[in-house]
Design goal:
This protein is α/β, with parallel strands linked by helices. The protein has helices at residues 15-24, 32-39, 45-54, 67-75, 78-100, 133-144, 148-156, 161-167, 178-197; strands at residues 2-9, 28-31, 105-110, 125-130, 170-173. It has a five-stranded parallel β-sheet with strand order 2-3-1-4-5, sandwiched between helices.
Length: 201
């Protein structure tokens, strides 16, 4: 049997940290951001789709996609964001489905825009990773080397956290220390195993 569990949450909320704990616990983890990075390399399907739509003005001198410039465009314009998502998401989903079929048992998928993409039905369970907004802004500023206003705009371009938490089966608060996050994650893994593999309610 194969069960697919989505791991989602806001930008810079600790999804990758949680997924590392899951992977270190022996489970298979698929990273949709990694799929996107691979698919957007020169000559790959997503690269071609972006180049065809946006033109060479969104390429770096070395020919790669200028992610910062494209990010600035879509985070400030909901229509452009929708256009970009419509171009890229089908390519990511097609590759994701291929990767899922190569595994059995519990398969965890790190997918930042799970709810925005309306893909809830792909998953048997959904985990929402979150932290308080102030800490999220600070983490994002540090991670992406951006100012506070741009960090806020990136966060606000995504669906409301309350909606994501309400629609998820489990939530993990990553605002504490790593040991607390690890303990919460492992507890949820045990619950998921019990429910899906052993039929515990």
């Amino acid at each position: 049997m194969r069960y697919v569990i989505g791991v989602t949450g806001g930008i810079a909320s600790g999804k990758s940290q949680v997924c590392k704990i899951i992977k270190d616990s022996g489970y298979n983890v698929i990273d949709c951001d990694q799929i996107a990075r691979e698919s957007s390399k020169i000559g790959k399907p997503m690269y071609k789709a972006i180049l065809d739509h946006y033109g060479r003005g969104y390429l770096l001198p070395d020919g790669n996609i200028d992610r910062y410039k494209l990010g600035q465009l879509v985070f400030n314009d909901s229509l452009q964001r929708e256009i970009l998502n419509n171009l890229t998401h089908p390519i990511i989903i097609e590759e994701l489905k291929k990767q899922i079929t190569s595994y059995e048992g519990l398969i965890f998928v790190e997918m930042p825009l799970l709810f925005e993409s309306k893909l809830e039905l792909m998953f048997d369970r959904i985990i929402c990773v979150y932290l308080n907004k102030k800490l999220q802004i600070n983490r994002l500023m540090l991670r992406d080397d951006i100012d506070q206003q741009y960090a806020k705009s990136k966060i606000e371009s995504q669906l409301d956290l309350k909606y994501k938490k309400k629609r998820s089966h489990y939530v993990i608060d990553t605002g504490g220390d790593l040991n607390k996050t690890r303990a919460e994650t492992i507890s949820i893994l045990q619950k998921i195993e019990g429910e899906l593999l052993y039929g515990n309610s």
